[in-house]
Amino acid sequence: MPSDRESLFCNTALAGRIELAEVDLISAHSRAAHRRRGKGAGFLVSIAGGVASFADDGSPYNKVAGLGFAGVPGEDELGAIERAFADRGAVTQIELSHLADPELGILLTRRGYRLESFENVLGRSIVGSPQMPPPPPGIAVRRSGDEEFEAWLRVVADAAADPDTEGVPMHEDFPMEIYELAQRDSFGAGVQRYAALRNGTLAGGAELRMTDGIAQFAGAATALQHRRHGIQTALLNARLDAAAAAGCDIAVIVTQPGSKSQQNSQRRGFDLLYTRAVLVKHPNQ
Questions:
Q1: Buried-exposed string 238-257: b where 16+ CB fall within 10 A, e elsewhere
Q2: CA distance 39 to 182
Q3: What CATH code is assigned to 139-273?
Q4: Is the model's pLDDT at 111 over the cut of 90?
Q5: Where do you find CATH 3.40.630.30 in the chain?
Q6: Which residues lie closer than 8 Å to 45 by C-beta, 6 or more apart?
Q7: Which of 108, 176, 278, 280 has the fewest CB neighbours in a 10 Å radius?
């Protein structure tokens, strides 16, 4: 990256805006899962500027997000949410930005929530960014349509089975069938898919979702035999160009702390903006 690039400073206003985009993303995925499963399959409840989502049994979108930027929820509100998760045999998981209202952390601690993990939110400004360099020879990146979805899914699902092992491990491990269902719901959530080809072979994939000027980068994966050939950088650059062309001003990536994904993102100009604490309350706790 150019040495004169300014770091992106994250104040509470920017954090609140990114968390609202996260709320929108989770809500869209949850609604897509509910359409697939039928009426009454889950719930999606607004709470103090955030959202409580139960998308599907075992889904990565079963969580509470976006709290702490529009007031602190009441004890009764939280109690109702906790009972709704417990009724479905699920824990109540709250992902809380460290820039959120400190009173919320005190409230959750008092209610018996346990700190289980962290995740880092990184971002970079893309206002006025020059067009990204082309991929290395033999690598091509393009939008991926519905006609190749099954092939795209197989590549990213197989890659997910061999994850990044550096840094803090994820506190959740989703079965492959749950991962694949969540990916199938992504199209209904307004997520764009990108495919990377190496010498004409589908070698990797990634996702991009844009809302209110925030470009959310997710799902980037490269098949094991095609790694270390610049595919992740090519997928990142293609999405940065697409986001800039669509008028987004901020690009956001969520990574595990200390992971290779975080290191690669920072090498590509993303700054560490804030950390989310993953707080969990088990039924009957």
A1: bbbbbbbeeebebbbbbbbe
A2: 18
A3: 3.40.630.30
A4: yes
A5: 139-273
A6: 51, 52, 53, 81, 84
A7: 176
Contact indicator for 236, 217 with CB cutoff of 8 Å:
yes
The verdict on pTM exceeding 0.70 is: yes
Mean pLDDT of 262-273: 93
Greater pLDDT, 181 or 203? 203
Could you tell me the pLDDT band of residue 181, with boundaries at 50, 70 and 90?
Answer: confident
How far is residue 217's CA from residue 254's CA, in Å, rounded to a whole number? Answer: 8
φ, ψ for residue 83, nearest 5 deg:
-65, -35
- DSSP label at 2? -
Amino acid found at 107: L
Q: Where are the alpha helices (DSSP H) in the chain?
A: 12-37, 75-87, 102-110, 149-160, 176-186, 231-245, 260-267
**49-55: Cβ within 8 A, 24+ apart:** 49/20, 49/23, 50/19, 50/23, 51/23, 51/26, 51/27, 52/81, 52/84, 52/85, 53/26, 53/27, 53/29, 54/30, 54/84, 54/85, 54/88, 54/90, 55/29, 55/30, 55/182, 55/185
